[in-house]
Design brief:
259 residues; seven-stranded mixed sheet; alpha/beta; globular; DNA_Partitioning_ATPase; P-loop_NTPase; AAA_dom; 12 helices; 7 strands; Rossmann fold; single chain
């Protein structure tokens, strides 16, 4: 199972939209088995796949708090073939706090011990824009990290902090963790966007070639419809961009596996 963390320290960069659509395409187009882990207490990925409930006690929070968790209890089927999800809600906030004070067992490897041996082709983790114990658990478990970036200065500040955290996890827990690069979202072909991309390139930050165009109306509509954008509006620019992005990621992963 290849585990991919979708993460950014800035909100509003299409992080959940990226995770939701990245999960859909391998399952629907390539017949791959995909597990989504909602690692955000707001539960937006869970809402997108219609598996969110404030009353649900069988969420990712249990992985943080319980030793030897029965994963069959927390994995839910979705309405889509090949896609399952571990949902999240506000219980995750309490679970993070509980994990910090629980020094009786290792805090950083709970996701890995509970989930890494599951039988899926891909596990995609939608992470909260924060650095907390569940985020560290996600990075310790992950093979790849993808960072959605909206071109503004605040995103760049957060990126520096995040890259430092990734490097720290690589050094302490997961030497095989690979930073695939930044995915430019809400892209517009204008001077600000192109200068921002040039700045990232000068800093030698890896970038995906594919950019996700700004199509705010269709993206917003898809969230109300509770459908992945690539299903809700097949012809819109962002939907087409996400399909191409997934192909680029899969080709990159295949090339690395042959090295």
């Amino acid at each position: 199972m290849i585990t991919i963390s979708i993460i950014s320290l800035k909100g509003g960069v299409a992080k959940t939209t990226t995770a939701v659509n990245m999960a859909y395409t391998p399952a629907a187009v390539h017949n791959k088995k995909v597990l989504i882990v909602d690692n955000d207490k707001q539960g937006n990925a869970s809402k997108a796949y219609k598996r969110y409930s404030t009353e649900d006690r069988n969420t990712i929070a249990r992985v943080m708090l319980e030793k030897n968790i029965n994963t069959a209890v927390i994995i839910k089927e979705t309405d889509y073939k090949n896609i399952n999800i571990i949902a999240a809600n506000m219980d995750l906030l309490e679970a993070n706090l509980g994990t910090i004070v629980d020094t009786g067992r290792q805090q950083q490897t709970r996701f890995k011990k509970a989930l890494a041996a599951l039988d899926y082709d891909y596990c995609i983790i939608d992470n909260v824009p924060d650095i907390n114990m569940s985020i560290i658990n996600a990075l310790v478990m992950s093979d790849d990290v993808i960072v959605p970036v909206f071109i503004d200065q605040y995103s760049f500040y957060g990126l520096e902090i995040l890259l430092d955290q990734i490097a720290q996890v690589q050094e302490d827990f997961n030497e095989n963790l690979f930073f695939d690069g930044c995915l430019i979202t809400q892209y517009q072909n204008n001077e600000v966007n192109n200068q921002g991309i040039e700045q990232l390139s000068k800093q030698r930050v890896p970038l995906f070639n594919q950019r996700i165009r700004r199509t705010e109306k269709k993206v917003s509509e898809s969230t109300f419809a509770k459908k992945p954008l690539v299903e809700y509006s097949v012809r819109c620019g962002a939907a087409q961009d996400y399909k191409k992005f997934v192909i680029e990621y899969l080709e990159g992963e295949d090339a690395r596996s042959k090295v």
